[in-house]
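Q&A log
Question type: sequence-to-structure
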Amino acid sequence: MNNDRNGRRTLDGHTRPCEDCGAVNWDFDITRGEITCGDCGLVAEENVPDPGAEWTNRDNGEDRSRVGRPMTYTLADKGLNTTIDVRDLNTGIASRHGMSSQARRDWRRRRVIDERSKTRKSRERNLVKANQFIRDRSGLPAPLQEEAARLYRRLSGEGFVTGRSIAGVTAACTYLVARQEGLPRQIPEVAGVL
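Response status: OK
Response body:
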């Protein structure tokens, strides 16, 4: 895969010919998540995940250390909080690993406190709801969902969301991001989904 300056990559492994022109010159648009024909522009696949590396390289480029989950604006906490999964505490896994019933009770209490502390302020609760709208209903590729969530977060931080419906502002953010990227979306279509 060869990188280009404008967010496109040339695909080497995609070998089937184009349905329209018969060429085998495929491009991968990173921001849209689309595989397109480099000759005629036909969109062959949509919503393709980025097959890029999941590691970071250090100084010499040989160390492929995993760095964990990337930061994402589509989650209210940007994906940086730790989650205590209730299934780990309620199933037999905890007792099989030697966790006493008192320790499991303590961890359940900590989990409840952790969940409550994540959405204490109304702005954070609204971010959770808005990000859920953007992720689940927008129909945008993941990079554009990130951009829409980043835009909503910025508007919310500057006070533009106060007094307006969350669905309306998320629809506006979704429409604006789609329009900036040249995706064909109409206002009634976006408003109807969100």
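Response note: The longest strand covers residues 26-29.
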